[in-house]
Write a structure and sequence with these properties.
InterPro entries: AA_adenyl_dom, AB_hydrolase_fold, ACP-like_sf, AMP-bd_C, AMP-bd_C_sf, AMP-binding_CS, AMP-dep_synth/lig_dom, PKS_PP-bd
Strand content: 15-25%
Organism: Streptomyces mauvecolor
Number of helices: 20
CATH class of one domain: Alpha Beta
Strand order of the largest sheet: 11-12-13-14-15
CATH topology of one domain: Rossmann fold
Radius of gyration: 25 Å
Structural class: alpha/beta
Pfam families: AMP-binding, AMP-binding_C, PP-binding
CATH architecture of one domain: 3-Layer(aba) Sandwich
Keywords: Phosphopantetheine, Phosphoprotein
Bound molecules: adenosine-5'-diphosphate
Distance between the termini: 57 Å
Protein name: Non-ribosomal peptide synthetase
C-alpha cells in the first residue's frame, strides 16, 4: 500500500462501510423482521430470534435490578451453551461491557484479568463461580423460567461502547486486555464480502469465549440473520466436531490454523459437510490447503489474518488451488481495515519489499485496558495515515495488493492458535526461587506440531526438578502457557550482541528430547504406542510412557483419540484420555471398550447386510 491512490482508496472504503450500531440492535432488527428464524441452538435449547431477544431482555432487566449500570465492566463465567449468547446480549442491553473468563484458567490469572479489565462483578453459572473462587462480587444468573418480565430497554449500546475485553499474552509477565468496540465487531461481520454468510447459514460456535475467534463465530451468524450452533462439549474431539456439524446442518465454521491442519491431514468429513471454512491464527500450510481444495472442491476456504487489536481479521484471502504453489497469502484488508507496510523509519517500503505491517481503519481497538503506556507504544497517530496499530508482523505486497506473511519482528510465537509472548513465561519462571534465569522457545517435532520448550539456569542451591517447576507454573499460568518440556542448563546461549540466541535454543531443545529405553509391550499396548509415536513425532517404547511428559497436549490428544478410533474402532473421551495418560492406561481403556462392544453384540445377530 505505498502509492497515494491506494491510500485514498483505503480511506474511502473505511468511510463507506463503518457499521454504526451496537450488537444487540442487530439482533433486535432480525427479531423484528424474521422473529421465527432460528437464532441459537445447542443440544438442549433452541431459540428463534424473537425468543433470543426476549430472553436477553428479561435477563437484562434482572441484571439492572441487581445493580448493573451502563458503563460497568462485568465478567462472564459460563460453560459454552446457548445461554452464553443470551447472557452476553443481556449484559450489553443492561449497558455493561463483557469480560469473558475461562473456567480452566488458574485463579491468579483470573484475578489479574478481573483487575486489569476493571470488572466490578462476575456473573455466570453458580457452580463455576463457586469453583473458580473469583475475587470480588459475584452473581449467579437465574434460569430463564425464573425471569418474569422485561422492561423496555433503552437503545442498547452504541457503536463506540466497549463490547468485550479479550486478553492476550504480555511480554512483561501480565496479560493485556484489549477493549473491542461494538461497531468494530458489527463492521467485521455485517454483509461480509470476504466470506459467504446468508440468513440460511448455520455457523458453529466451538471456540473458547476468551478467544476472539468466538466473536466471528457468534456474530457472523447473528448479524446476518443466520443461526449459531453451539458445541457444548468443552473439548470436542474431531469426531465430536464432525457429529455436531452433521447433526445440526452447520454450513460455516472457523478453525484455528493448527486445528485446520490436523483436520486437513486426515481429510476429515467436516469438509464434506461445510460450505465455508475460515481459518486463522498462524501461517496456512499450502499442502494442507491444497489437499482440502482438491478433495472437497466446493469448500469456500478463507485465510483470515489479524491481531485481536484489529478485531479478529484485518486481511482475508479466498484460497484457491493456484495459491498453494508457495506460502498461502493473507490477502487484502477488508471491512474497514487499511494496511500499510512501513520500514523502521515509519516510511512506506518499496513495492514488493518486506516491511512491518501497520493496520489502520475503523476497527482498531480502543487500546489496552488500564495500560496507557502500552497503548501509546502500539497504537500510534501517524502524521499522514491516521491512527495505526503496529502488528510486529513482517509482510510484503504483491502487485495486486495481496499480502504475503513472512513472520515476526519480535519473539512472539503462536502455539495451537494461542498467541504467546515467551517473556510472559520467562517472567513466571524467574519468579521461582530456584531459578536465576530462563528462556522459552518453540520446538517443532513434526511440521504440524509446536511445543514450548523452557530452559532455566538454576539459582545457587539445590538444582530444581523440572517436573516440580512445571507443576508450579500450572498454578499461575493457563495451560497453553505452560511449557511442554523444561531443561536445566548451565547458561543460556547468547548471540554476539548479548541477547538470548533463540535459534541455538531451538537446537538445544531438539537435542534434549528424551528417548525412553525399550521394554516389552503387549500387542494392544504396541498398537497404542504406534498411534502415539506417529502423533508425538518420537518413538514410544515403554508401557509407562506418559503422554504429557512426551510433550503431548490437547490438540495432539485429539489426534491420538481420532487415530485410536480409526485404527482400533474405539472412542476414548478426552476426560478418560487424561485420567490415565500412559500407553498401558490407554491400552486398558481400549481393551475395556472392545470387550464392552463385544458383549453388547448378540452372539446370533445377523451380519450387516450392506457389506460393513
Ligand atoms: P487471532 O486470535 O485473530 O489469531 P491474535 O491476536 O491471537 O489474533 O494473534 C495475532 C497474530 O497471529 C498476528 O499478529 C500474526 O502474527 C498471527 N496470525 C494470525 N493470523 C494469521 C494468518 N492467517 N497467517 C499468519 N499469521 C497469522
Amino acid at each position: 500500500m505505498t502509492n497515494p491512490e491506494t491510500l485514498l482508496d483505503d480511506r474511502k472504503e473505511t468511510t463507506v462501510t463503518v457499521a454504526r450500531t451496537g450488537l444487540p440492535a442487530l439482533v433486535a432488527r432480525h427479531a423484528a423482521h424474521t422473529p421465527h428464524a432460528l437464532a441459537v441452538a445447542d443440544g438442549d435449547t433452541t431459540l428463534t430470534y424473537a425468543q433470543l431477544a426476549d430472553a436477553a431482555r428479561r435477563l437484562a432487566t434482572y441484571l439492572h435490578q441487581q445493580g448493573v449500570r451502563p458503563g460497568d465492566f462485568v465478567a462472564l463465567l459460563m460453560p459454552r451453551s446457548a445461554r452464553t449468547v443470551v447472557a452476553q446480549l443481556a449484559l450489553w442491553w443492561a449497558g455493561a461491557a463483557c469480560v469473558p473468563l475461562d473456567p480452566a484458567h488458574p485463579r491468579p490469572r483470573t484475578a489479574a484479568m478481573l483487575e486489569d479489565s476493571g470488572a466490578t462483578l462476575t456473573v455466570g453459572d453458580s457452580k463455576l463461580l463457586e469453583a473458580a473462587g473469583t475475587p470480588g462480587a459475584t452473581l449467579a444468573l437465574p434460569g430463564d423460567e425464573q425471569l418474569a418480565y422485561a422492561q423496555t430497554p433503552g437503545d442498547g449500546p452504541g457503536p463506540d461502547d466497549t463490547a468485550f475485553v479479550m486478553f492476550t499474552s504480555g511480554s512483561t509477565g501480565r496479560p493485556k486486555g484489549v477493549a473491542i468496540r461494538h461497531g468494530a465487531i458489527a463492521e467485521l461481520v455485517t454483509d461480509p464480502t470476504y466470506v459467504t454468510v446468508t440468513a440460511r447459514d448455520r455457523v458453529l460456535l466451538h471456540s473458547p469465549a476468551t478467544f476472539d475467534g468466538s466473536t466471528f463465530e457468534v456474530w457472523s451468524a447473528l448479524a446476518n440473520g443466520a443461526a449459531v450452533v453451539v458445541c457444548t462439549t468443552e473439548r470436542p474431539s474431531f469426531e465430536d466436531l464432525a457429529k455436531e456439524v452433521e447433526r445440526h446442518g452447520v454450513t460455516v465454521a472457523f478453525f484455528t490454523t493448527a486445528l485446520f491442519h490436523q483436520l486437513a491431514a486426515r481429510r476429515s468429513r467436516v469438509f464434506s459437510l461445510l460450505r465455508t471454512v475460515v481459518v486463522g491464527g498462524e501461517a496456512m500450510a499450502a499442502q494442507h490447503a491444497r489437499a482440502v481444495l482438491r478433495a472437497f472442491p466446493w469448500v469456500e476456504l478463507v485465510n483470515g489474518y489479524g491481531p485481536t487489536e484489529a478485531t479478529t481479521f484485518a486481511t482475508t484471502h479466498r484460497v484457491v488451488d493456484a495459491d498453494c504453489d508457495g506460502p498461502v497469502p493473507i490477502g487484502r484488508p477488508m471491512a474497514g481495515a487499511t494496511s500499510h507496510i512501513l520500514d523502521e523509519a515509519f516510511l512506506p517500503v518499496a513495492d514488493g519489499a518486506q516491511g512491518e505491517l501497520w493496520i489502520g481503519g475503523s476497527r482498531l481497538a480502543r487500546g489496552y485496558t488500564r495500560r496507557p503506556e502500552l497503548t501509546a507504544e502500539r497504537f500510534v497517530d501517524h502524521p499522514t495515515l491516521g491512527r495505526l496499530y503496529r502488528t510486529g508482523d513482517l509482510v510484503s505486497a504483491r502487485p495486486d495488493g495481496v499480502l504475503d506473511f513472512h513472520g515476526r519482528t519480535d519473539d512472539q510465537v503462536k502455539v495451537r492458535g494461542f498467541r504467546i509472548e515467551p517473556g510472559e513465561i520467562e517472567h513466571a519462571l524467574r519468579e521461582q526461587p530456584e531459578v536465576d534465569d530462563a528462556a522459552v522457545t518453540v520446538r517443532r517435532p513434526t511440521p504440524d506440531d509446536a511445543r514450548l520448550a523452557a530452559f532455566v539456569v538454576a539459582a545457587p542451591g539445590p538444582v530444581p526438578r523440572p517436573d516440580a517447576l512445571l507443576a508450579r507454573l500450572t498454578a499461575t499460568l493457563p495451560a497453553h502457557l505452560v511449557p511442554a518440556e523444561l531443561t536445566v542448563v548451565d547458561r543460556l546461549p547468547l548471540t554476539t550482541s548479548g541477547k538470548v540466541d533463540r535459534r541455538a535454543l531451538a537446537d538445544l531443545a531438539t537435542a534434549a528430547e528424551a528417548i525412553g529405553a525399550a521394554e516389552p509391550l503387549t500387542p494392544l499396548q504396541q498398537a497404542v504406542a504406534d498411534v502415539w509415536s506417529r502423533s508425538l513425532g518420537c518413538e514410544v517404547t515403554r508401557p509407562d510412557a506418559d503422554f504429557l511428559d512426551l510433550g503431548g497436549h490437547s490438540l495432539l490428544a485429539l489426534v491420538v483419540a481420532e487415530e485410536l478410533r480409526e485404527d482400533l474402532g474405539v472412542e476414548l473421551s478426552l476426560p478418560d484420555f487424561f485420567t490415565t495418560p500412559t500407553v498401558a492406561g490407554h491400552a486398558a481403556l481400549v481393551e475395556r471398550a472392545l470387550l464392552a462392544a463385544h458383549t453388547d453384540l448378540h452372539p446370533d445377530a445377523p451380519k450387516d447386510t450392506d457389506g460393513h
